[in-house]
Amino acid sequence: MSDRLTKKSTVATSSIMVFPSDTNDYGTMYGGRLIEMMDMVGGICARRFSSHKAVTASIEDMQFNKPINRGDIIEFTARVIYTGRTSMVIKTKVTREGYDEVKEVCARAYFVFVSMDSKGKPVEVPELMVLTLKEEKNHKIGTEIRKRQALEEKRFEIELKENL
Ligand SMILES: CC(C)(COP(=O)(O)OP(=O)(O)OC[C@H]1O[C@@H](n2cnc3c(N)ncnc32)[C@H](O)[C@@H]1OP(=O)(O)O)[C@@H](O)C(=O)NCCC(=O)NCCS
After folding, report:
1. Which of 29, 40, 89, 159 is within CB 3.0–4.6 Å of 68 for a Cys-Cys bond?
2. How far apart are CA 141 and CA 149, in angstroms?
């Protein structure tokens, strides 16, 4: 029997108010700034789950579906939805809230983080416990993403080899 630890999903959240320095000429938020924050909150979530350092290996399916305006409050929520041996898929959602206090999802992405030991080598993470129907659905998404992503990794290796 495997002696690998199992663990319930961990969550990380953070909120900020959008300042002029976060926005473009039109007063809406820069995508790059948003991704930076999503990466940060995802990294906190990955570290909590793995109890190790975690590095971003890839960002999958980044969607910006609603603009974020100067003065909005935005909230980031990251949760582990899938684990490989040393990798974790972290779903990160962003909701915006204007002065009417209505919250709407305006972006989401799946971050793949890899857990690293003190020597900078990938290290095994606990296996994710999948307990609810929602977790099951998210786990299936994570499985599909990792399958697709394995092909992407191979293609990237070829591109590097052939200098494409
Ligand atoms: C991510 C990284 C540690 C993987 O190293 P590696 O030598 O390929 O390690 P391994 O082959 O043992 O793979 C370890 C895990 O990483 C995953 N992985 C490797 N490359 C990946 C990629 N490009 N995208 C997603 N996952 C990847 C593997 O699938 C494997 O997952 P598993 O253990 O759950 O099956 C390495 O590529 C790295 O350090 N990249 C830079 C990370 C970084 O600096 N991020 C900040 C962005 S600036």
Report:
1. 29
2. 12
Distance 145 CA to ligand 1 centre (A): 15
Q: Which residues line ligand 1 (CB under 6 A)?
A: 55-58, 84-87, 112, 114, 122, 149, 153
Tell me which residue has tokens 């603009």.
67
In the reported structure, the alpha carbon of residue 55 is separated from the centroid of ligand 1 by a whole-number distance in angstroms of 8
Residue nearest atom 44 of ligand 1, based on CA coordinates: 55
Domain segments of the chain as ranges: 6-162
**Distance in angstroms (rounded) separating the CA atoms of residues 21 and 58:** 26
Judged on CB neighbours under 10 Å (0-12, 13-18, 19+), 131 is exposed
CATH 3.10.129.10 for domain 6-162, yes or no, is yes
In the three-class reduction of DSSP (H, G, I as helix; E, B as strand; rest coil), residue 20 is classed as: helix
14-101-80 Cα angle (round to 5): 30
Q: Which atom of ligand 1 is nearest to the CA of 153?
A: 23
Structure tokens at 35: 């991704």
Are 93 and 55 a contacting pair, CB within 8 Å? no
pLDDT in tens, 5-26: 999 999 999 999 999 999 999 9
